[in-house]
């Protein structure tokens, strides 16, 4: 499907289709967005990036009228999900300002400062010297972020979820923590896997669970990713599907809506891949990695054999995933760039004492 096309989930719910990353063509990836109406509340889940995608959101919002309130929930702070966040100002023109709300996670605050540059430099430092064209992380980050325009992630109405009291949410038989909006029409679940502030969104009226980027791969690539939380988010989603609590699952970078059977198969595969990827890393490991480029090459080759590609299977993200896997396994890095060595932590007598 092409950028900006709509998938109708039901009469009140649309998914706006994004696009994959193509750095050679200077094409940014764009995360899918959800547009939903619950009575008089227009709900936007992410806003992607690019003018064309913004126009598609506006078209869907017009199609779902009438509504008199707007809620934008941002799943996380990466630029492919937040570039058009000021669309709430356009859509809310003429509405009382108190009827237009936008929430982001406080844990992603660093991504919104200084155009997100420091955040991306930190992540790209991990592949410096390992991927051609990324020898200078600051320059690489500037080139990467330059593709994401227009970029307006916050406005004067933006607040953080964490300013609100944390709630005990119930979805089917599952008990989770997060926040609810619109008298329960929107449930935002804390997952914090893909990055520090990642959330997923449940729309009970549409029986839809939007996982955003949690299923991008069985091991997160960014420096603030948490593989255990990614696994937990996928397991929660699979349980909700298998118990019939949700009928439709959508993601940030899979350009289709999954019914229960397809979602169960996809999530089961993701969980199996997480275990297989861990085993692959263990098989390649010794107590010390002196030749990091060779390990990266071998691990990426093995992950591809296992069918693990993630949402953006390119050398940058594949290498970032490899470094993330080493950290997840508890190895400790010394040095910088391609000259890093990685070792298992030393357990001295004091740590082994009863």
Automatic annotation (TrEMBL):
It comes from the Bacteria. This is Metallo-beta-lactamase domain-containing protein. Residues 30-253 form the Metallo-beta-lactamase domain. InterPro entries: Metallo-B-lactamas, RibonucZ/Hydroxyglut_hydro.
